[in-house]
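My current task is to audit a protein record that another person submitted. Thanks in advance; the entry in question is below:
***
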Amino acid sequence: MSAFINYVAEDGRGSPINLAVVRVLLGTYVIWRVLSLEWAAYGEWPDVHVDETIGFLHQDLFFALLPYQQWVVAALLVLFVVGYRTRWTGGIASLLLMHMLSVKATIYLAGTVESLFVCAYLILMFALFAEDDRLSVDAFRRTGDRSLEELNAVLTDETTRVYRMRALKWGLLAVAIIYVGSAWGKALNGPLEIWLSGAELQRDILFNREMTGIERAAGVPIVENELLAWVGFVGTAAVQVSLFVAAVLGLSVTLPILGIIGFHISVILTLGLYFIDMILVLSLFAAWDGAYRRLAVDADDEATVVYDDRCRACTRALVPLAHLDVTDSIRFVPRSDPAEPVDRDAALSLSSEGEIAEGYEAFRRLLGRFRLLTPIAWGLGLSPVRAVGTRLYERAVPDRRRRPSDAPEPGRT
């Protein structure tokens, strides 16, 4: 299994976990970045020459709004991280962030600005394809609009599920194009003979040494050896182009991404902390679902969940867990299935390794089967939490034994 995924070649995965992981990592990182920058200071920046193509953004009003916009963007991204109304929270946050970065770019276009532009674009993709995300607050809210028949089909369907990852598909393609542009920029940065000689890289290292007064040991051999400079400069351009080539040809992107990460590390060693944000951006395309499959559930430890398929609250609560069960180690059995005679009266029961749990305890143990959710299951087992949780469970999922009849519950069917 590849360490990184070529979503351009295939945007369907057998687990929805990648979208959830990337949404949380991306949103959390951008919140930290937005709140850590001194936006108010940009309005006090000395007069600079502004490119006329973006001069209309260099306005006192825009600079005055930056400190307030950062808190609005951070608040929206908190909602984006949990997946609440992603189409709006992510869409508005990304557009506001792009505006803030554009205003900042009228002063200077640093690597942080360019990297955050990429992050803003990715957030916008999540907003445009919000319906693909199955492990979000929005996804759970959408289950309220689905019929019991549809909800039960999710739990009992034994066919292989495919989850689309269009946000990551277009995100990867955009990142690949950006690196092609970076390689092309190197070629346009001087005469061909200078580009091929690697003198451009030597000049960058010497200029950085003069500006900062810091001589980095990793840069000395490159300055002193023209062949090494040529390999570093031309090799970097080749690695940057390789990501786009691999993506559009449907090849593995693992080596190109690792090569680009290596390039960024070499830049840090020779020039300083430039474009360090892009290492995180590239890591977003890692095969998170592969790691999750190994950590989430023991495939050999099977369990059977018998649930009341006429109880809307019960089926809605189980749907996210069905999406998380990537090893198919949990079998969901509707109580009304004539092929599965059930002698349990509780609305929810869990059978595993000869032990049977019912009601609230069954739900708690079901969560505990997912190793990543073990802390939550442990917390639900604490006496005060258990007492409150049991009462809430009994209200939301009434026990079949307390019902006056076997008639279907009122509501949508």
